[in-house]
Amino acid sequence: MMPEAWFSDKRAIRLVVAAMAALMALFVVFGRYLFLPKILMVALILLAAVLMGRLKPLVKDWFVFLAFIYLFDSLRGIIYILTCKLQLPAYALYVLDIEKSLFGGVPSVVLQKLLLHPDPLGNFSWFEKTLTVCYGSHFIAFLFVGFLIWLARPRTFSLYKSSFYLLVFLGELGYALAPTVPPWMAANHFGLLPPLTHFNIELFNVAIPDISNGFDTNPIAAMPSLHAAFPILCCFLLWRLYRWKGAPFYLYTLSVLFAIVYSGDHYVTDVLAGLALAVGCYLLGARITRKDREAPEVEASAEAESPLAGAVLKKRLLFGLGVFLIGVVIGGVNKTQFRLHPSSYTPDVPKYVDFFRHEGQYVDSYLVQAYFGNHFLALNEHEKALAYFEKSLGLVRNPIERQDARMKIAFCRKKLGLKN
After folding, report:
1. pLDDT beyond 60 at 343
2. Per-residue confidence band for 59, with pLDDT thresholds at 50, 70 and 90
3. Which of 47, 277, 296, 411 is 20 to 30 Å from 40 by CA-CA measure?
4. Do 333 and 75 contact (CB within 8 A), yes or no?
5. Any idea what the Cα angle at residue 184 is, between residues 183 and 185, rounded to 5°?
6. Is 28 helix (H, G, I), strand (E, B) or coil?
């Protein structure tokens, strides 16, 4: 086992920051852009625990937590499936109105107009590439921070877990209650904003398999932004323990926040909601775990050596395994649905109630009329779909749109038994 002194505050912070920085730098240097899967970080944590002879404490403290994280991935996907199947209300306009009230416009549009200038071949600069790596790493960064806390300040690990349980649960609840269109979709799919370049998605060129691949598809899971809330909550935890020694991670967090707005993945309003959520979960988590953190450290070591330690470990293993299997089953259902019925889960399938309530405002919008047509087509309401496709045909802006509208008109007429 490595000596406890080895995990001094400064050394532990430097270890985490150096590992994260080195990993991201390698991806930038070799031109590899991807979502870093959680399974990669889990494997590194497991390897480190084995090398330090701390496998049993790791399983006892981490297994249930990781099982719930994978379960929440699956719930994100099932929320989108239910939103589509049950035609639950989804939203596109309220967040736009908030952005315009706060900033007089939409920051994503302003930033791209000022900063995004690909070369004549369409290649992005080092700036966009670096931000894409930061964006792709944020969902493993919180595990880095958790591992650091578990090693250096184990009494605070209960606060870390409780805060993240609350954060993910409430974030998922937000996705269920207010499915919200992100800026890139508002711009490129509905024409509510000037076109935005979703450069991080264009840059992603590597996929590393993870257990939850295909489990969590949800293009309208934008409010609140967990992309923002995860690193922000980590910042509060690091500030509690290390104050300004955590400055490199705070800078990393700022880069993630900038990236998700600049790329059009989130509105600033989403980020502010993520900030509020992170603050609330941190404060509530601190209140819930206060007694655990104030207990003498000797109690933890005595508990680890007690005859009941083995029974506790077994119970947590079984419980964690049950949670994990539930997540895998739900995720498997999600993946099967997305693979076998892709047309039932396109961005046109949810019912964006703003457009239905204010339909008269969009009679001159090809993209919104096409949305109505595609929406009703996905619901097999061919007569309604035909009416909207015929409207969209008079609003087309280029030959591709004209061809698409004509094909869909012909398809609907055929389904209705009408002559073309």
Report:
1. yes
2. confident
3. 277
4. no
5. 90
6. helix
Q: For the whole prediction, is pTM greater than 0.85?
A: yes
Q: Does a cis peptide bond (omega within 30 degrees of 0) precede residue 118?
A: no
Three-state SS letters, 324-345: HHHHHHHHHHHHHHHHHCHHHH
Amino acid at 121: L
Residue whose pair of structure tokens reads 């994260």 in the numeric block? 20
**Using an 8 Å Cβ cutoff, are 413 and 419 in contact?**
yes
Q: Could you state, in order of their start, the residue ranges of all structural domains in the chain?
A: 14-342, 358-415
What single-letter amino acid sits at 205?
N
Residue among 74, 87, 37 nearest 335 (CA): 74
Kindly calculate the radius of gyration of the chain based on its CA atoms and give it in whole angstroms: 24
Q: How far, in Å, CA of 105 to CA of 97, rounded?
A: 9
44: how many CB neighbours lie within 10 A of its CB? 16
pLDDT of residue 6: 45
Distance between CA 266 and CA 76 in Å, rounded?
17
Could you report the per-residue pLDDT of 40-57, keeping only the tens digit for each? 677 777 777 777 777 888
